From TrEMBL:
UniProt GO BP: DNA topological change
Domain Topo IA-type catalytic span(s) in chain numbering: 1-372
Positions of region (Disordered): 506-568
UniProt biased composition (Basic and acidic residues): 506-519
EC number(s) recorded for this UniProt protein: 5.6.2.2
SUPFAM superfamilies assigned to the protein according to its UniProt record, in alphabetical order: Prokaryotic type I DNA topoisomerase, Zinc beta-ribbon
Basic residues bias (residue ranges): 527-539, 548-560
UniProt organism field: bioreactor metagenome
Keywords: DNA-binding, Isomerase, Metal-binding, Topoisomerase
GO molecular function term, any single one: metal ion binding
Protein name, UniProt field: DNA topoisomerase 1
GO cellular component, one term: chromosome
């Protein structure tokens, strides 16, 4: 009897479909020692040995693995999950969550706590038993320990307020709700319910194989791990693809070599931050609070310190300049531990353990002196520019008119601004020449007019979009990069614009009456007078621009060999 299998890498990624009774083994050891490949000649020798080796199963281990469900969402976990699942930015996630909260569909969305209200847990357990059955309900309610630095746990975890409201019903709750609200609500709904469900159970099989060339001097150890979902538990709400199946093997079974391949990989630089990973890093280092993660990221984007490209953050020249300047002149302020300690002091103030005047006094007086000193003595730092051999056209006009010596004429340089890169003169500010740099998609024309080029633009918030070079004659624009050959009729474009206007109208807030405005303003003024003398200091969040290199190193690394074996 044969069993279907999949080819998958050591990391568990499915590579391709395979015939029955085939499994992919990873080379783990050489002569009972961990494999360490450094030279190409060493790799070639091993490949030659494995080509002529005999393969025998030495061990088969079958164990039951259990996986506990994930905790309910905190702010940072929700932001990370929404970015991973839907590509939402942190700011977008918080906007959608705010609107769901305002309509009473979810609990407060700025929290660092895993705690859940007792009544909510009881309702969740009852819903699980009624909907999925008693086997999906653990004997006791699940509780999760906090993991974030300086977690305040002032609010419970993010959850839906009524489990009977499905995602299909969300659009009925408010005219401003869209499919994005549905997606986020459904994610919160499933995560909350799954946090109180039984663990998932897997049958995991590990097979060890020994390979040795007849008459050879070396023996090699290979391994494959397969798993089959035995009981879904909380996984019933989070389907994760097919099982990783392997053939049914026994000790001393002999295997035939089906295929053999080696992989050579270059050492990779650290991955660039995206919304999800940056929020995770901020939380890990104790920088900011659930209520400030979105604003921290928005600030560094809007000020042009970083820019988004394909959902990843890239430090700009001005961002790197600011970072280097602050690191040089304010090293203590830029230290991550200092920021975390400052956050802890603010927590101590909130708990009544410290007086805020003393904390601020210790922090502010040295900072004020340092700022005054740096402002007086530090040299002005120029933002790095990209030089070109192109002559400045404005300077050349002055040279031609005899108003500027040729040797003093400037050259075109590339600078970075809020809306992307642009051309400027090296003589700035004496020469005011500027020209936008237009990035176009190669070999693609506007899908609407078929005449203009597709150009890449940036909003003032750093978000990228695509438009027609013939604007305003042609007003086509899209957030999504068009596929080559995509076409759009005038009628279809009119319908797209109509839906956009309809969507915008949902989010327009009605202006309160003039009398109502006056009353609110007056009340606010009176309140501020009463509380101004006792107002607490605002928390100061430090923003540091983290530079991550994208330059590949020259060193090479040869990975473990992959061996495909087939039972005889």
């Amino acid at each position: 009897m044969t069993q279907k299998a999949q080819v998958f890498s050591k990391e568990g990624k499915v590579l391709a479909k395979t015939p029955a009774a085939i499994a992919v083994f990873s080379l783990e050891k050489q002569d009972d020692k961990k494999l360490a490949l450094k030279e190409k000649s060493q790799t070639e020798q091993i490949v030659a040995d494995l080509q002529e080796a005999e393969y025998r199963v030495t061990a088969v281990e079958k164990v039951e693995r259990r996986r506990q469900s994930l905790p309910p969402f905190t702010t940072s976990l929700l932001q990370q999950a929404a970015a991973t699942a839907f590509g939402f930015s942190v700011k977008q996630t918080m906007t959608l969550a705010q609107q769901l909260y305002e309509e009473g569909l979810i609990t407060y969305h700025r929290t660092d706590s895993f705690n859940l209200a007792v009544s909510a847990v009881e309702k969740a357990r009852q819903y699980i038993q009624d909907t999925f059955g008693a086997e999906f309900l653990p004997k006791e309610a699940r509780h999760f320990a906090k993991t974030a630095k300086n977690a305040q746990e002032a609010h419970e975890a993010i959850r839906v307020t009524d489990l009977t409201i499905s995602k299909e019903m969300v659009l009925e709750k408010s005219s401003r709700f869209t499919e994005q609200h549905q997606k986020l609500y459904d994610l919160i709904w499933r995560r909350f319910l799954a946090s109180q469900m039984s663990e998932a159970v897997y049958d995991q099989t590990t097979v060890q194989v020994e390979a040795k060339k007849p008459g050879g001097h070396h023996k090699y150890g290979l391994k494959v791990v397969g798993s089959v979902l035995k009981f879904a538990g909380w996984r019933k709400l989070f389907q994760t693809g097919e099982d990783a199946l392997i053939p049914d093997l026994a000790v001393n079974d002999l295997l035939d070599l089906h295929d053999l391949f080696s992989l050579q990989k270059f050492t990779q630089p650290p991955a660039r931050y995206n919304d999800a990973s940056l929020v995770k890093e901020l939380e890990k280092r104790g920088i900011g609070r659930p209520s400030t993660y979105a604003s921290i990221i928005s600030v560094i984007v809007e000020r042009g310190y970083v820019e988004r490209q394909q959902r990843k953050f890239f430090a700009t020249p001005i961002g790197m300049t600011v970072s280097d300047f602050l690191l040089e002149h304010f090293p203590d302020l830029m230290d991550y531990d200092f920021t975390a300690e400052m956050e802890e002091d603010l927590d101590r103030i909130s708990r009544g353990e410290k007086e805020w005047e003393k904390v601020i006094d210790v922090f502010y007086k040295p900072l004020a002196k340092k700022i005054a000193s740096v402002s007086k003595n530090a040299d002005r730092v120029a933002v790095p520019v990209e030089e070109t051999d192109e002559l400045c056209p404005e300077c050349q006009k002055l040279v031609a008119a005899g108003e500027l010596p040729a040797k003093e004429a400037g050259k075109v340089v590339i600078r970075s601004g809020r809306f992307g890169k642009f051309k400027s003169c090296s003589r700035f500010p004496d020469c005011k020449y500027t020209e936008n740099i237009v990035e176009t998609l190669p070999d693609q024309k506007c899908p609407l007019c078929q005449q203009g080029d597709i150009i890449v633009r940036n909003t003032r918030f750093g978000k990228q979009f695509f438009g027609c070079s013939r604007y305003p004659e042609c007003d086509w624009a899209s957030w999504k990069k068009p596929e080559p050959g995509f076409r759009l009729t005038a009628k279809e474009w009119a319908e797209v614009k109509r839906k956009r206007e309809e969507w915008k109208a949902r989010f327009k807030k009605k202006e309160p009456a003039a009398e109502e405005k006056t009353v609110k303003t007056s009340a606010a003024a009176k309140t501020s007078k009463k509380t101004s003398s006792k107002s607490r200091p605002q928390k100061v969040a430090k923003v540091g621009v983290v530079r991550r290199t994208s330059k590949k190193t020259a060193s090479k690394k040869v990975t473990s060999k992959k061996v495909t074996a087939q039972t005889k």
